[in-house]
Amino acid sequence: MKVTLTFDNGPTAPVTSQVLDTLAGHGVKSTFFLVGEHLTAPANRAVAERAAAEGHWIGNHTLTHTVQLGDSPDLATAEREIGEAQRLIGELATPGQLFRPYGRGGVLDRRLLNRAALAYLQRHGFTCVLWNSVPHDWDDPDGWVDTCLADIRTREWSLVVLHDLPTGAMSHLPRFLEALESMGADIVQDFPPGCVPIRDGDVRVPLDHLLAD
Question: CATH no. for residue 108?
C-alpha cells in the first residue's frame, strides 16, 4: 500500500510550520500546492522556502483559489490564475512546474479546467496533479483521520489532499502518520500515474470529463 501526502491552500505560516515539524519527525516528504497570493506575506514566503529547503516539492494551486477554470473559459483567467501564481512561486517550484487546479470540494468534473487552460498548461510544460483521496479535513477537522484511513485501504496507491490551514485539523497529523506506519503503508513523494493526466505538457489520458464544454 502506497500513500502520497499533499497539502493545499497554504502556506499559512504557523500551521505550515507545524506540519513541517511533524513531517520531519516522521521522515516524510510531501508536496505543498500553494495559493500564489499567500506568498506576498513575508512569513508565508519564509515557510514556503523552508519547505523547499527540507526537500518537499512546491506546486501551484492557482493565484486566488476562487476561480474554477471551467467556469471562466477565457485565456486571460488561465494566464492570471496559473501564470501569475507561478511567477510568485518562482525558484521555489520543484520539480519542474506542478499545477493543481481548484476543484471546489475536491470534485473532479467539468468545472475543473477549460480548453484555454489546458492549452496554457501544455504550452508552458506544466505537470497537472489531481487526487484520489479527499478526507475533508477542512470541514471535519476532528474526524478526517479515520475517514482517510478507511479510504486508503480501498486502493493500492492513494494521493491524499490535506490542507495546512488554521482549522485545527493538522493537530491530528501526528496520529495519522503513526497510523499509516502501523499499517505498514509506504509513504512516498511521487504521484500515482492515474492522478497525473498531464506531465511536462504532455496529455497522458483523456480529459474530456474534466473540461468545460
Answer: 3.20.20.370
